[in-house]
Amino acid sequence: MIFKRKVYDKLLEWKKSYSGRYACLLEGARRVGKSTIAEEFAKNEYDSYIVVNFANITDEMLDVFKDIAKLDVFFLRLQAESGISLKERKSVIIFDEIQLQPKVRQAIKFLVKDGRYDYIETGSLISIKKNVQGIVIPSEEHRISVYPMDYEEFMWAIGKDSNPIRDIYKANVAIGSSTNRSLMRDFRLYMAVGGMPQAVEAYVQKENFEYIDNVKRKILDLYFEDLKKIDPTGRLSNIYKAIPSQLALKKKHFVVSSATGKKQTSKDEDRFFELLDSKTVLCCYHVANPESALAQTKDLDRFKLYASDTGLFISLMFDDSKQANEIYAKLLSDKLDANLGYLYENVAAQIITASDKELYYHTWLKENSSHHFEIDFLLSKGHKIIPLEIKSSATRNHESIEKFATKYSKKIYKEYLFSQKDVAHVGQLQLKPLYMLPFLLEQL
Fold first, then answer.
1. Which one of 3.30.360.10, 3.40.190.10, 3.40.50.300, 1.20.210.10 gives the CATH number of domain 7-145?
2. No. of helices (H) and no. of strands (E), the chain
3. Model confidence over 334-343: pLDDT tens digits?
4. Which of 68, 144, 304, 350 is deepest in the core (most CB within 10 A)?
5. Could you tell me the sign of the dihedral formed by the alpha carbons of 50, 56, 62, 68, in that order?
6. What's this model's pTM, rounded to 2 decimal places?
7. Domain positions in the chain
8. 372, 370, 366, 407: which is closest to 387 by C-alpha?
């Protein structure tokens, strides 16, 4: 099933502005739809195309790449082996799972310089050491990140129009409890299914949640296989598995030693960056001084981790589908236990990341106390900052964001609390339902 994806427009921009000078590298986690998007784009926008899938390649096709330094011979053999004719400046070659053939990736420099055809690379684990060892990474790559389907893409997939929500957001008025409840039901459905195309397809085809959960578990199995290949000790897998429990404990930052069950070592830092390269997690860095540009005072040693997809996050939380089914039922009926509110925090992180924005948060010590205030996420607009607080339901308690707004009043652009409640405001604090978060991000 082919879904409408926003990355298609980014590919159009690449083809229009960069394709003669850069190959396009679609980078993202496994199963986010990179290969499908690349082939659909090639089919629609070029006269012909060849897909070389390095994860499923014949010996004969692999042999073709031994002549890649002799471009005339290489192109002749590639066309003969694939049975597809290429047209100069009207054809594209897709190198699927390019990370499996580092030498081919290195040759992108010469293929682009040759100029006869366009090139699209797709890959996951692109920056892992073993996938770049001994090669010169080409500078002739235009990188585009591919994320799980965002909320608007999910709405398109299930046949709903997202523009009314965009208009409601712009109107900035309460829409009434009945309409808000209906829109929040759709949003909670997105949280439950997630944005992995296979899971969304299963939902569209009217499969039950036990089936959908099994689809997601198969994706998680692939992730664990990849992580075990990167780190056979299992410590990397344990870090990934610990994401739900550490969020549940409301720790001020992720504690690697708690995740691995062992004393942190220097190698754990390398493992952490390899986990980031897998794109299976989202890293939210602590900002020491929100008065400056956020990236300038982020603490690389102090961070929170979220799952890249909230649908996968739910499956990751529980050992089997039966346990997860209880959560799906509670989530969809809005009877989720208050202590599972961090699911809403995870989906907010996913939405912010899908808008190509970095994740930042801030904590500070309460006066005469050992406890801390915390701002869940910080955004920026020009030289101003936007604090976001995420709540699953109740909105009465917002002391942290009020204290933050007072402390950094000269730096605040606007302040928001996102929950399941209708549009409202308390002084300068804007209260919005979570389904409006993507449309706030559009305006920044």
1. 3.40.50.300
2. 21, 14
3. 888 877 789 9
4. 350
5. positive
6. 0.95
7. 7-145, 151-442
8. 407
